Every structure is written in structure tokens, then in C-alpha cells.
Amino acid sequence: MNHTEEIQSIKRIVYYILGVIEVLLAFRFIFKLLGANPASGFVSGIYTMTSIFLSPFIGIFRTASARGVETQAVIEPANLVAMLVYAVIAWGIVKLVEILRRPNKV
Questions:
Q1: Which H or E run contains 68?
Q2: Closest listed residue to residue 24, CA positions, set 54, 57, 56
Q3: How many CB atoms lie within 10 A of CB 101?
Q4: Distance between CA 106 and CA 99 in Å, rounded?
Q5: Exposed (0-12), middle (13-18) or buried (19+): which is 58, by Cβ within 10 Å?
Q6: Which of 69, 26, 72 shows the shortest CA–CA distance to 50?
């Protein structure tokens, strides 16, 4: 594997991990927004998996909710902040790898 392929592999891995985290957080956001039943196994699993990624951002903004006839919609701004922060972190890691793996031209 040459130098360029190695960098591309690292970038793909970082962006893949970011993609998984972003999709999980997006599901959580949609489920909360639409008032999904937290007793559902799938919904509960998504909430459990994403809670660790969301915990550093809880409390930055107040959570808003609206009660409907059958469900309660919740808007978690912390979820959106988490998605943005993780995207920036992944981008920063990729750029750092590019800098560190760049051949020295002396």
C-alpha cells in the first residue's frame, strides 16, 4: 500500500465512523421530533446507543417540547450541536492525518 492509499484508507474509516454516528443521531432527532414510542425496542435501542454521544452536549440549550393528542414532540438542540461537533472533529482528524502523513520536502 503506497502513501496515498494509506491516507485514503484512514480518511474512509474516519468518515465511515462519522457516518454511523450521524445516522444514529439523525434517527434519534427524528424519533424525538415525531414523538416515537420510547418503549419500542428499536427506538429504545437508538436512544441507548446515542446517549453516550449526546451526553457532553446536554444542557447547552433548553429542550423544547409540544404535547399532541397522542404523542409529545421533543426538539433536542443538543442533538444538532452533537452532529455538528462530531462532523467538525472528523474533518479535523482527516486534515491532521493529511498533514502528518505528508512527505517532507526538504
A1: none
A2: 54
A3: 12
A4: 15
A5: middle
A6: 26
Residue 24, all three cell numbers:
444514529
Q: Which sign, positive or negative, has the C-alpha torsion 50, 51, 52, 58? A: positive
pLDDT tens column, 39-60 = 999 999 999 999 999 999 999 9
What's the residue count for the chain? 106
pTM, to two decimals:
0.87
Whose grid coordinates read 474516519?
14
Cβ pair 53, 86 in contact under 8 A: yes
Which residues lie across from 65 on neighbouring strands? Answer: 74
Stated as kind and residue range, the H or E segment containing 74 is: strand 72-75
Q: Is 87 helix (H, G, I), strand (E, B) or coil?
A: helix
